Amino acid sequence: MAALNRESGHIDDIVRASGLAASVVFGALALLELKRLVRDLCSMQYARVGEDAVAYDSDVSRSGH
User: 1-52: what fold?
Assistant: First the structure.
């Protein structure tokens, strides 16, 4: 989530800024879209739209899922 801001960013830039694998970033963005915290503006451009205080834990192995 730290790699996203309220201005649009291309998925490649988000992946690069996050340091995570592209598959992890795509999965996180999909979940964040469902929670209405980010929006796919078009052509793989994403922007944060929700609360800044909300954290997303991409390590699902700790949650037992």
Answer: Arc Repressor Mutant, subunit A (1.10.10)
Sheet of 9-10: strands edge to edge? 9-10, 45-48, 38-42
pLDDT one digit per residue (tens) for the chain, 65 residues: 667 767 778 889 989 988 999 999 999 999 988 999 888 888 888 888 865 544 545 554 444 44
CA–CA gap between residue 17 and residue 45 (Å, rounded): 14
Between the alpha carbon of residue 64 and those of residues 5, 34, 51, 59, the distances in Å are: 29, 21, 26, 10
Task: List the beta strands (DSSP E) in 1-65.
Answer: 9-10, 38-42, 45-48
Backbone torsions φ then ψ of 31, nearest 5 degrees: -65, -40
